Structure formats: C-alpha cells, structure tokens
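Priority: medium. Attachment 1 of 2:
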C-alpha cells in the first residue's frame, strides 16, 4: 500500500492498535504504510456522551469508522473522530469495505488462474475506476471489452468477466424497522389487513428502486424490511414510509409509531 495521507473530512476504517488513558491509536486501512499507530482518536472524540471508562468504548483489535479531522504530515500524525460519524455513514463505509474486499478476492482468483500479477491488475482498475468493486460492477453490466481497452489482456478480462457475473451480486442493503399500529375502529382488524395489503402494492409504484417486506410480529407490531441499493436510499425510503403510512390511515381512529432497528 502507498503511504499517502487521507484527506481531511474523509471517512476511513481502522483497527485499534493501542488504548491509552487519553485516547486510542489506529492503523488505517488502505494507508497501512503510515504505521500501526498513524491515526489517533482523543477520548473526547470517541463518543457523543461522556466517557467514564475509555475501554468501554474502544479496545485493541476493534474495527471502527472514523472521520479525519487534522493531519500533520511532517510528524506523520492524524487526528480522527468516531463520534462525528453518523450511523448511516458508518454502515455505508463498512458495506463499501466489504464490497471492495470481495472484489479484490475475485481479482486475485482471476490472476491466479491466468498467472498474472494481481497488484498490476488492481493498479489498472483503481486508476480507471477509483475502486475495484466499481470496476467489476461496470464489467458485470457490460462486456470484457471495457477492460481490454485499458491494457488488461483479453485472457484476464474474460476470466474476470465470468467471475464477476457469477460471484458479484448488485449492491443491496437491508434496513430494519418496526411499525406499531392500533386501530380503534369497530372493524379495526379488517382496516389494517386491507391497508397493509394495498400499501405493499402501492409501495412498488412509488419506490421502484427498493423492495418492502412486512411481517406481523404480534399485534400491533409489524416488522418492516426495506431493501435498497445503498443506505442513503434506504433511509430516505424509511422516512417516506412513515409519512405514507400516517397519511394513508388518516380518517381512521389509529395510533401509529415507528422504530428504527
């Protein structure tokens, strides 16, 4: 890995290498050349609440998502924050890391089969697409020719294409929520049964890029699963679902509440 520095404001994933009374040090993934203690999170940046015992928040070997606050390139020091990373940002970053690692595994298999140096192929894909996962997604949707145009041999491109189609699935995330709804109408059970049946049908017309799955936990609670391409879309759809459910039940004597899992 190259030992260049991340950018201020960038979200990174790191592994805790040392915990001190005043904060914790991290090795930053994709910047391993900077050392195992390149990133430092002060105790005040660990949590949005007061930290009484630092080890209740972080421990050696723990993987975290952090935001880059300051960089002293002369000293090789990087100040980071965990508390300034929102939950959606954390989930998105970890999903991206998982996807990139999966893509790297596919490239490694293709290079082993064709006896080509993995690092060379990765470098070409990164320079043209920014990420190996994005390169394989593009490859999966098109043909092997997009790789032969960027100096990857036809043999390697063909194997990569076959593996991408077989092994790489389009990105999806699942957001879990709970809807609690009680209807006090005389025919409340029928009202809710009809409502959820019609709402699931209407959902697909409004949110073509996402799927909705609903299941009764036990009245009045319903499990809601939203499947989307990314967390930002899923969170937006969840907000829309809350509004749509409330609007659709207007006119009935109901109590509705929502909980994000």
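Attachment 2 of 2:
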């Amino acid at each position: 890995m190259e030992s260049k520095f991340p950018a201020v404001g960038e979200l990174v994933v790191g592994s805790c290498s040392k915990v001190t009374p005043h904060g914790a040090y991290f090795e930053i993934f994709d910047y391993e050349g900077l050392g195992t203690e390149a990133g430092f999170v002060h105790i005040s940046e660990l949590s949005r609440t007061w930290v009484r015992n630092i080890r209740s928040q972080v421990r050696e070997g723990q993987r975290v998502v952090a935001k880059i606050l300051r960089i002293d390139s002369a000293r090789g020091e990087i100040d980071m924050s965990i508390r300034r990373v929102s939950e959606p940002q954390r989930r998105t970053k970890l999903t991206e890391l998982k996807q990139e690692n999966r893509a790297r595994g596919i490239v490694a298999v293709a290079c082993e089969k064709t006896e080509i140096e993995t690092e060379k192929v990765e470098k070409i894909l990164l320079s043209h697409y920014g990420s190996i996962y994005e390169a394989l997604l593009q490859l999966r949707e098109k043909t092997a020719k997009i790789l032969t145009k960027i100096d990857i041999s036809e043999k390697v491109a063909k194997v990569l294409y076959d593996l991408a189609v077989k092994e790489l699935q389009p990105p999806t995330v699942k957001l879990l929520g709970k809807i609690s709804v009680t209807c006090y109408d005389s025919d409340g059970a029928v009202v809710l049964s009809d409502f959820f049946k019609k709402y699931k049908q209407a959902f697909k017309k409004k949110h073509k890029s996402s799927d909705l799955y609903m299941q009764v936990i036990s009245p009045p609670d319903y499990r809601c699963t939203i499947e989307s391409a990314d967390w930002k879309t899923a969170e937006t759809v969840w907000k829309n679902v809350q509004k749509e459910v409330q609007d659709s039940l207007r006119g009935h004597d109901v109590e509705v509440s929502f909980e994000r899992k």
